[in-house]
Amino acid sequence: MQKSRNNNGSTNKKSIEKNHQKKQQNSKDCNTAKAGKSSFNWYPGHMTKAKRMMEENIRLIDLVIEIVDARVPMSSRNPDIDKLASNKARIILLNKADLADDYVTNKWIAYFNSKNIYCLKLNSRDNSGVKQVNNLIQTACADKIERDKSRGIMNRTIKAMVVGIPNVGKSTFINSFAGKASAKTGNKPGVTKGKQWIKLGKNVEMLDTPGILWPRFENQDVGMRLAMIGSINDNILNIEELAIDTINYVYNNYPDNIIERYELDKEAVKASYDESAINPDNSIALYIMEQAALKRGCIKKGNAIDYEKTANIILDDFRSGRLGRITLERSEDNANS
Fold first, then answer.
1. Does residue 5 form part of some domain?
2. Which residue from 186, 191, 136 is spatially nearest to 160, judged by alpha carbons?
3. Is 153 found in the same domain as 238?
4. Is residue 308 assigned to a domain?
5. I want to staple 227 with a disulfide (CB 3.0 to 4.6 A). Which of 69, 127, 128, 232 is the partner?
6. Distance in angstroms (rounded) separating the CA atoms of residues 261 and 256
7. 270: domain CATH number?
8. Which helix (H) or strand (E) holds 25?
């Protein structure tokens, strides 16, 4: 989803509709040979270097702790991690659970447990989960601990590698776990750039690794979800189209959240569906976007709506949780995987 703007630096309503219609057609072709060239792909050079570093250090590791975003528990799992950590103890932490639909999160925990994967939901900005994580580490490494005891080795340090895609909160998790700012943190993808070992307590050391994606998304919907949560650099995206995708999902799955946030008239929103629009399915989303613009004062000279500014506000509202607790995918959709 590359940026597409007109000469005055904004995207007008018709171009949003046309671009989105074209993107949806491309999405229908996602199983063809052309599908690999997903417009959401973002794989800068430092990710190749980071992956190589992880491969070089995996032999030192007892446990792999995979941090995923609770709003997209499957899409935020890097498939390369399964290959990298195939013979290691594993834990999945559903981070940012405070931003996700709690009912759906609990279903995801049951799903991962059914796959014999240790799983825990977590808000890494809250230290309340530290004890649970500690206990889970001991449980996941129980076989290793018993082997050490049988050899007369007591309390040997557990070495864990913390992995995850950009912007899922790995460094913030480590800081909460350590009780201090041990690793650099930020709300932009790609803050952690090098290898960092952090000692946590007496018998756990964690290797914080840079967030890495994988070179190509076979499913464009995965890229879209990662773009929504901010794991793909906004600078390479068409923000207006991404906001339309976000509005569509929220309205179709959590309608009251978006209606209440922007103080919209529920019946007026329903009535905004326009069969004559270039893309009728987006007519409600465009109406919501325009109403949000009016509510937030996103108006340019000549009373034109500033779609880019409005899109950024809507995405920020979603990412920060101001649109409510929302999950973008369901465990039921992965029942056979």
1. no
2. 136
3. no
4. yes
5. 232
6. 8
7. 1.10.1580.10
8. helix 13-28
134 and 223 inside one domain = no
| Statement to judge: residues 266 and 296 lie in one domain | yes
**233-286 pLDDT tens trace:** 898 889 999 999 999 999 999 999 999 999 999 999 999 998 878 888 889 999
Describe the crossing of helices 239-253 and 220-229 by its angle, rounded to 10 degrees.
90
Domain membership of residue 292 as a residue range: 13-39+219-320
Paired tokens of 169: 């909160």
- Name the domain count of the chain: 2
- Quote the pTM value: 0.81
DSSP secondary structure code for residue 277 in this structure: S
Q: Mark whether 116 and 249 lie in a shared domain.
A: no
Residue bearing tokens 């390369």: 80
Q: Are strands 63-69 and 158-163 parallel, antiparallel or unpaired?
A: parallel
DSSP string, 301-324: GGG-B-HHHHHHHHHHHHHHTTT-
Contact 315, 243 (CB under 8 A): yes
Q: Give the whole-angstrom CA distance, residue 326 versus residue 323.
A: 8
